[in-house]
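We read letters as residues; the integers encode the fold. Take this protein.
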Amino acid sequence: MRSLINMAIRALVRLLVTSLLISVTTSTRGAALDYGAPADAYYDLDDDGTGAYILPVSKLLGHVTGLGIDSRNRLVAFHRAGRIWDKKSFDDANLFNVSLGAIKNHTIYVIDPKSGKVLEEHGKDMFFMPHGLTVDHEDNVWVTDVALHQVLKLDHNFNVRMILGERFKPGDDMKHFCKPTDIAVAKNGHFFVADGYCNSRVMKFDQNGKLIATFGSPNSELIPEDGEFWIPHSLALIEDLNLICIADRENERIQCFSAGLAEGGRAIPPGIFITKAENIGRVYAIREKRHYLVGVTGSDGDGIEPQVFVMDMNTGKANTFVKGIENAHALEVSDDGTVYIAQTGPNQIVQLSLHD
């Protein structure tokens, strides 16, 4: 009976979200994703043919692992300063080597996106291994720290307002995370956490941090099933489509599920699988703007070049935008269509230009 109900729900969602996403087949793996996305979705690139240039940030950056944009169009970057994630950072039980101590430098920069000048800096002696960052519609800054195994909500003055997870304690129950990677926040205050390197699940909370739902599981077979993850690394919430999309990094795909944001008679619970894009490389980061899903992939060891791609979620068409940005870890898209990509070596932020 439950399977029949789930099938009915999925059918209803597909009716509500017509021509939703993508079906990127195995034959596209390693090739440019070129499905004829509308030409007017792209800017006429004039930077040596790549359309990419380095944002000249005025202060030193470590590995840049998270990016957000606030309501004043300022770029917020989360970086690791001098901290490196290597074999000495964690033991086999995912416990952080606390003898390394907190990072002594500021790890959050607020940056003028035009000049690269660092306007504010925060986070000194606060974080141990920064990872994901997002800025919500009220300018709260949400971050994950994989060493702390925690999610933190900071207000616009960067004061801590909420902490989820137990400090330095990994776990797989409903009160713990294990190396959480990213956060996505809805306008009603509900938020999603990608959890993460160990647990391979997504957790949904209300505005007060109360757990609402959890979905996803690790791979059970060589070919993963829908709803299975191998490092859910990045999230993109598309509220008007009631979708939460997950960059399923090591499975080289994006999966989208019902977000459970609708209310009333047509309410659909969170975590119902809707659609996916497969065989597109190791997807490190995704963000959505005006029904364009922007993502970045990494090298996979088989000579596959990293690439930035744009997918039109209304038509199901996709296109490669830029290739060769190594070690990309996070991205953000501004309202004017500028794409910012964070790298973890070289430690920098790459900027691309798109049309509105």
